[in-house]
């Protein structure tokens, strides 16, 4: 496994791979890798000649009061995990190379970026799409792997790729959870013991929504009010939003339809967690 910090060096390696007619599978991450990331990496490894993982805590997608500084950076452990998965290249760009002085260009997917998390994290998705497009240009991947855990992010990136004719294929992989239902996230590291218990309420609320839908309830207000009641029973929980949305527009819908998404963002103490589930008729999964 080769670790690359320099943008030009990474670009040269990607170009060389393409000249040799090798396909590149790419997994962008912010590190603090867990089984959710490793599932994406294994898929990229399996489906491509070359597997590249980037680890970059992108300052541009964090708000001023957010956790950029404290975001976990266990780089040695991350490198070991990647080595074990047979990753070929780890790209670890430096912030001042990604955003040199005078950097002025940003990519925004309009409307989708202002919904849901975008309402609470102003500028977040603009930061995400900008860094992701930069990484695509540097790595020139054939297939890029994203997790459904960050479903709004994945939908926005798909839209950017379509609108800007970016020649990559986007694959969205299912959410990986602990046995108790908690969706894996690097931010779970922030949770205390009590908060870890309370955090289970996110997937439990999605499960309760599933059960209600399975009994034939389609009125989204009824489903959301049940979820809200459940979440509010937890001392440390504070809801940013819960919504049932169309999976193309991310706009709220009144009646549950096939392939719509139940999405939520909830603070557990000082940690903001997100989770979601896709409704698919006749079967529904969390
Ligand atoms: P991050 O390092 O948080 O930026 O995540 C990098 C990628 O891993 C994103 O595409 C995430 O959606 C994905 N990911 C994070 N957690 C999970 C999870 N529990 N299951 C599946 N994918 C995940």
Topology (elements, then pairings):
Elements: E1 2-4, H1 7-19, E2 24-29, H2 35-47, E3 50-55, H3 75-84, E4 89-91, H4 95-98, H5 117-120, H6 124-139, E5 143-147, H7 151-163, E6 169-173, H8 193-214, H9 220-231, E7 237-245, E8 261-268, E9 271-278
Parallel strand pairs: 1-4, 2-3, 2-5, 3-4, 5-6
Antiparallel strand pairs: 7-8, 8-9
Give an overview of the whole structure.
The strands form 2 sheets. Strands 1-4-3-2-5-6 form a 6-stranded parallel β-sheet, with helices on both faces. Strands 7-8-9 form a 3-stranded antiparallel β-sheet, with helices on one face. Helices cover about 35% and strands about 20% of the residues. The chain has helices spanning about 5-20, 35-45, 75-85, 95-100, 115-120, 125-140, 150-165, 195-215, 220-230, and strands at about 1-5, 25-30, 50-55, 90, 145, 170-175, 235-245, 260-270, 270-280. α6 packs across α7 and α8 (about 195-215) runs antiparallel to α9. It has 2 domains: about 1-175, Rossmann fold; about 185-275, 2-Layer Sandwich (Pantoate--beta-alanine Ligase, Chain: A,domain 2), CATH 3.30.1300. α3 links the parallel β3 (about 50-55) and β4 (about 90). The protein has about 290 residues and is α/β, with parallel strands linked by helices. The protein binds adenosine monophosphate.
């Amino acid at each position: 496994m080769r670790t690359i910090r320099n943008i030009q060096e990474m670009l040269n390696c990607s170009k060389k791979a393409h000249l040799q007619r090798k396909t590149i599978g790419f997994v962008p991450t912010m590190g603090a890798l867990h089984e959710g990331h490793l599932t994406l990496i294994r898929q990229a490894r399996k489906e491509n000649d070359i597997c590249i993982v980037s680890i970059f805590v992108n300052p541009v997608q964090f708000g001023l009061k957010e956790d950029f500084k404290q975001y976990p950076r266990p780089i040695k452990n991350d490198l070991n995990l990647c080595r074990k998965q047979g990753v070929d290249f780890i790209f670890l760009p430096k912030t001042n190379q990604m955003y040199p002085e005078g950097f002025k260009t940003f990519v925004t997917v309009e409307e989708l970026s202002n919904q849901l998390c975008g309402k609470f994290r102003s500028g977040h998705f603009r930061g995400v799409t900008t860094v992701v497009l930069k990484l695509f240009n540097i790595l020139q991947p054939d297939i890029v792997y994203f997790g459904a855990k960050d479903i709004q992010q994945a939908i926005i990136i798909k839209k950017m790729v379509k609108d800007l004719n970016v020649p990559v294929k986007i694959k969205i992989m299912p959410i990986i959870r602990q046995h108790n239902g908690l969706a894996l996230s690097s931010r779970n590291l922030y949770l205390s013991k009590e908060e870890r218990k309370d955090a289970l309420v996110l997937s439990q609320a999605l499960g309760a929504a599933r059960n209600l839908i399975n009994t034939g309830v389609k009125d989204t207000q009824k489903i959301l009010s049940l979820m809200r009641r459940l979440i509010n029973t937890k001392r440390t929980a504070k809801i940013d939003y819960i919504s049932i949305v169309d999976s193309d527009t991310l706009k709220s819908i009144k009646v549950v339809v096939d392939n719509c998404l139940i999405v939520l963002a909830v603070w557990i103490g000082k940690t903001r967690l997100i989770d979601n589930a896709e409704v698919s008729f006749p079967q529904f999964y969390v």
